[in-house]
Write a structure and sequence with these properties.
The chain is about 25% helix and about 25% strand. With about 100 residues, it is of the alpha+beta class.
Length: about 100
């Protein structure tokens, strides 16, 4: 089974750890669903309530980690490497944000 997480009062998601069974049982009771239905909905990516009243009383399966995007860097004429979108055109060539004023004179 995947890692079950619950939401705290601050909105942060934390692992249930050994208490996952209690949260799943509370979710079954609160939503009037079977264990199979609860697990199927969690596997589909939904968050489910495990008690009423509190906005944060939800559980979910831990989402898969998002792949890190590749950062494309360029070498500016000032000699510094920066992300492509941070490179600026100056009168003496391309410059990083720190060197822009010096390269624009």
């Amino acid at each position: 089974m995947q890692n079950v997480q619950h939401q705290t009062e601050t909105g942060r998601w934390v692992d249930c750890g050994d208490g996952a069974e209690e949260y799943l049982l509370a979710c079954e009771t609160h939503t009037n669903r079977t264990r199979d239905n609860v697990l199927a909905e969690l596997e589909s990516g939904k968050t489910l309530r495990h008690r009423g009243g509190d906005w944060y009383a939800k559980i979910r399966f831990e989402p898969a980690p998002q792949p890190q995007r590749a950062v494309e860097t360029v070498l500016c004429d000032c000699g510094h490497s920066v992300e492509r979108g941070m490179s600026m055109r100056a009168s003496r060539g391309t410059a990083c944000p720190d060197c822009y004023d010096r390269m624009s004179e």
